[in-house]
Design a protein that fits this description.
192 residues; alpha/beta; 6 helices; 1-acylglycerol-3-phosphate O-acyltransferase activity; 7-stranded mixed beta sheet; 7 strands; 38% helix; 18% strand; acyltransferase; Plipid/glycerol_acylTrfase; Glycerol-3-phosphate (1)-acyltransferase; transferase; 1-acyl-sn-glycerol-3-phosphate acyltransferase
Length: 192
């Protein structure tokens, strides 16, 4: 309920402030586990990725945020769960896989930290979570810069075919899946 109210408000704010447009929403399955893998340019990206999606999108967030009175419970109710600083913990990975096995949607930024155009190397966590959960992987591109009345766009790409990788979760396979995800994101960012 709270998530739906916040999403409606954000849709209005994004439309007015950022002249926000989305394309490719039809590529997101209406049910079943989905991992939305996006480039990461700003702290606003989690709300940007989830604003136009009709399903609730869950994210990992820094564990320290959950200790802030009122804010911690608020972001937890919006679908965030804690991850410890210094890398993704096994507990956070287990939580992500469990959410996906329940048929939910996760938003992940494979680069881990912010970069201009998805041009830094991705980390293997998103690939591992997707392969272990059997989730559909959707590449996502945030295009434009955040600024009042500047045009922002988001593109949700076609699902990435994981059939060649599904039986193997070796380090080499995770690297190939990660690179495939990043290539798709970079391509959409460049196309604009």
């Amino acid at each position: 309920m709270l998530y739906s109210i916040c999403r409606r408000m954000l849709r209005i704010l994004y439309a007015v402030l950022f002249r926000f447009e989305a394309s490719g929403l039809e590529n997101i399955p209406s049910s079943g586990p989905v991992v939305l893998c996006s480039n990461h340019i700003s702290l606003l990206d989690p709300t940007t990725v989830g604003t136009k999606v009709d399903r609730k999108v869950h994210y990992m967030a820094k564990a320290e945020l959950f200790d802030v009175p009122l804010f911690g419970p608020f972001i937890r109710s919006l679908g965030a769960f804690p991850v410890k600083r210094g890398g993704v913990s096994k507990e956070a990975i287990r939580t992500a896989i469990a959410l996906l096995k329940e048929g939910k949607v996760m938003g992940i930024f494979p680069e881990g930290s912010r970069s201009a155009a998805g041009d830094s190397a991705g980390k293997k966590g998103a690939a591992m979570i997707a392969l272990k959960s059997g989730a559909v992987v959707i590449p996502v591109a945030i295009i434009g810069k955040y600024g009042i009345f500047r045009k922002m766009r988001i593109k949700y790409g076609k699902p990435i075919d994981m059939s060649d990788f599904i039986q193997d979760s070796s380090s080499d396979t995770l690297e190939r899946v990660t690179e495939t995800i990043m290539i798709n994101i970079r391509k959409m960012v460049k196309e604009g």
